[in-house]
Amino acid sequence: MRNIFKISIALIIVSFVAACGAKKKEVTREDRIQAGKAAGEASYANFRGDFAAAERALVRAVELDPFNADNWFDLGIARIRIKDKSGAKAAFKEVLSLCKDNAAKEPANAAWLVKQIRPMVILGRVDEARALQKRVLEQFPNDPQVGVFRDPKAIDRLLEDALLKEFNS
Fold first, then answer.
1. For the chain, what are the domain ranges?
2. Which CATH superfamily is 28-167 part of?
3. Do 54 and 38 touch, CB atoms closer than 8 A?
4. How much is the pTM?
């Protein structure tokens, strides 16, 4: 009976700790700095052609700062390069989720909409990406963040990317 009591208490404690950990992580300045360093390591690993090392560094970056959409996007690309299709899809879906949340909080910031276009194309949601591109151009005609997506052929060029073709085959 005493063992059952101890096990019950242990389960309650584990459940409590797990529930507390389920809250959104607060990212500290130090976390952001370390995430930036990890992203830099990933960039260098990509340059060397060591895509597995890049993926590991980016996993570390998103663990430290899970709200950085750019690192999630880069993680998706790294996972394409190491042939982890399901992991890449999960990373790109996270980019979309973060950007949609931020776009709702900052509707005057074109970047949160623009950052959704590439992952949409990669995930095969091309019509949705074209509609978003059109919306961005209408809503932010002079915003420099729109960048390459001012060109009506930008999405078509993305679709011609060899890495994207391999991913979607």
1. 28-167
2. Tetratricopeptide repeat domain (1.25.40.10)
3. no
4. 0.83
